[in-house]
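Morning - adenosine-5'-triphosphate inputs below, output right after.
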Amino acid sequence: MRIRDILSADYIGKEVTLRGWVYRLRKQKGNTFVLLRDDRGSVIQCVFPSTRIDNITRESSVEISGIVKEDARAPEGGIEISGTDLKIFQVSDKDYPLGEYQSAELLLDYRHLALRTRKMIEIAKIRASIFKFLRQWFSDNEWMEVTPPLIVKGSVEGGSTLFKLNYFGDVAFLSQSAQLYLEAMIFSLGPVWSLTSSFRAERSRTIRHLAEFSHLECESPWVTLPDLLQIQENLVRYTIDKTIKERKDSLKFLEIDTNRFRGLAEPFHKITYDQAIEKLISLDFKMAEDDGKSRMIRWGDDLNIDSERELTRQMLTPLFITGYPTEVKPFYVKENPVRFGTSLTFDLLGPQGYGEVSSGGMREDHLPTLSSRIKQAGLNPVDYGWYLDLRKYGSVEHGGFGMGIERLLRWFLGIEDIKDSVLFPRTMSRSSP
Ligand code: ATP
Ligand code: MG
């Protein structure tokens, strides 16, 4: 039996048996109050005569039997259990390192135990719902789920963030993106999508970058840039709407004001890169330079988090920016045939300053162009031979996008540091636990 069942139906006066862990313990002279956590993270207060449970400690694993009672003072739902029997599986060591208030660093050092805190439990449940509804959307819309390899030979997003592997004496890398493989699949499987870890050796410590993140990617033949924007928008709206409904209690526990999502019902805002730059210039936006100085932003600059924040600060609806300069995007992007120097690409920015959540666009499908781009990017064409084959044998217009799930969660839950949106964060300084 689970605590949720007891809280959601009428069990008053009935005897129940629950298994779980001692989440909190409050000993008084007469009674001891055990806040029991079950294996789905729900908690309920159980009251025992103190003489009955002398040796119990926090995080001991137990089975509790008792009578369900109404008590307005009980912390969860005004319902508690008047304990009649207690079986102990294991008395937890007294030195459990996590108390009620802990520094963020300690919680990261003990992440394997911090997963038992209410905050992490509720975030994990919301993550699970996000995955479930993303998958549901793709399935309902007849996209096929595929599993690309994660050990690869070539870079997708530039060499500086590659993790190198000793692959049986040869060099290989951990995948930065499944995109090139998804492109290979569209010729026989049609619209495809995958959800895998992507790996980036991000050397700067930021609150938006992980070394390993959950990457949702999709790719389809015969789509256009406007199609991709619509697909991206529908997917995000569906996933967030469904998650809000399924995880009302979790959102309430995390004190997330669902008014923040009002703007999602409206069509997402769309501006071009040109308009974004004009807007930033009108706001007198300065780019920080490497030497510590700053200068006015100008056409050709990539948009960084500061500029993204400036553009979306006042918004409640996500923002698409389209038509980035080809130069600031990776080698595979499709040039805009009617505006040379710009590409058929988009980024989706979370509102309220959360910044890039997804990147996508059309892919270069013309063999000589792609081939020379690979060389220009300083990549070894040999590693991309198979990728170039895709432009040799029945090339078609195609495109897709890649969305970081932790970035989506960061915006959705208003999380400051991206590390809190994943169970075991991997960063430059952390590969354990
Ligand atoms: P940014 O400019 O924000 O560093 P990017 O443009 O390098 O990101 P892409 O290559 O476009 O990232 O990857 C697609 C998506 O994957 C991004 O929009 C983002 O949501 C997510 N993503 C990329 N790098 C990371 C990372 N290091 N940690 C978490 N998510 C990431
Ligand atoms: Mg990007």
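Note: Residues 225 and 361 are 6 Å apart (CA to CA).

O.
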